[in-house]
Amino acid sequence: MAKKLLLLLLALALLLSSCSYQVVEDSDVRTILGVGQSAYALEEGAGEDGGERTLTGDIANILRWIGEQLRKFAQWAANSGDGAVPPQAEGSPSFQETPAPTPEPTPIEYTISMVGDCTLASYPQARYYANSFENVVGTNWAYPFSNVLDVTANDDMTIVNLECSISDLSAGSGSTFSFLAPKAATDILTLGSVEFATTANNHAMDFGQQVYDDTLANLDAAGIGHCGEGEGTLYTTESGLTVGVYAVYSWHTPSAESVAAGVRSLRDAGAEIVVVSAHWGNEASYYQNANQEEVGRAAIDAGASIVFGHGPHRLEPFEKYNNGIIFYSLGNFVFGGNTTPADMDSVIAQATVTRDPDGTLYLSSFNVLPCSISSKTNENDYCPTLFEPGTEEYDRAMSKVDGSWTGANNVIDYSFMHPEG
């Protein structure tokens, strides 16, 4: 009897040393070895604490355990006669646990979206048109950004050029083209997932200082960051990126020296990345002028990573310059200033900023999303809508920003506002 048991254990030892792990998991082998089922529950490749078990270590421990039992059995067989009760197996084989590896730090990416002129009202004469901003949008404040919300709600920061006043104060303007939206229109920005608005443009003061100050107060109340003419503001995103935004207008011809100084001031104040918003250029032009190039490049040289322009009411090329990006004009976006613009092409510009595990922060990539300022093709319905890639409209808008557009500049005819006689 003792010899038979000894042969059985020797056979098991050979079987475990030569068979696959699946054989070791067999329930009959577990029963013979007296090992609990849970010790082999490795289908998911993990131990009880989440670490991975080492298969070769498991087999080695099983064999060591069997060897110890064989040694005890051999001692018993040498000193006992037939009919004696063999010793019971003691304990069970141990298993090595490999701790879960510490995750490697990975870079963090932040996305900043920028759009051009947002004019959230019609000019006084047009307010009574059936297709005016007021009559189309009404109080459906979520409507203007509804077709691009997938973009603006999924970035870290959206910046717009706010080319209107937002106030419930009663005020008049001496300008034919003046734009006054009610205080409630700030909901267009908040519901559109806009975090920041620049107010350095030629319509900021249409209704005087009091209305301008009230506009800023209303932006504050809505939780929207802002900066105006020649100002720089720090804004920290919910994701933890501190962005410095500098805005400039200066009658469409800003000073390179002033802009560079503003950028350096934001850097000194703790901005991790600096964005310059410039209202500049020639109206209805598809091409940047010399002042735009000088100022945009000076801003990058001073430490800005992104410059985005607006003012011409048309798209203009972007330029990659010295580890930065200059979007010379993003055109219009939510634009109540015209019911039927001659050119409704626009883009959403996006820049990706990367923070490496060592803390290094840099502009890693950029993108443009061609769109129309309207979901309709024959008139402005004040609801920007992305173009489908590969379409004629998409390619046309893209050509205006990638530098391949060769069309002539437009001329905007305002004579209908001041008829002769």
Walk me through the topology:
Elements (H helix, E strand, L loop, with lengths): L1 H17 L2 H4 L2 H7 L18 E2 L1 H25 L17 E2 L9 E12 L13 H5 L11 H4 L4 E6 L2 E2 L13 E2 L4 H6 L4 E3 L9 H14 L3 E3 L3 E6 L5 E11 L3 H14 L3 E8 L9 H13 L3 E5 L4 E7 L2 E7 L1 E4 L9 E11 L5 E12 L12 E2 L5 H11 L19
Parallel strand pairs: 3-4, 3-15, 4-7, 5-6, 7-8, 10-11, 11-12, 12-14
Antiparallel strand pairs: 1-2, 3-16, 9-10, 13-14, 16-17, 17-18
What does this structure look like?
- This protein has helices at residues 2-18, 21-24, 27-33, 55-79, 133-137, 149-152, 186-191, 208-221, 256-269, 290-302, 392-402; strands at 52-53, 97-98, 108-119, 157-162, 165-166, 180-181, 196-198, 225-227, 231-236, 242-252, 273-280, 306-310, 315-321, 324-330, 332-335, 345-355, 361-372, 385-386.
- By secondary structure, the protein is α/β, with parallel strands linked by helices.
- The strands form four sheets. Strands 3, 4, 7, 8, 15, 16, 17 and 18 form an eight-stranded mixed β-sheet that branches. The protein has a six-stranded mixed β-sheet with strand order 9-10-11-12-14-13.
- β10, α9 and β11 (273-280) form a beta-alpha-beta unit.
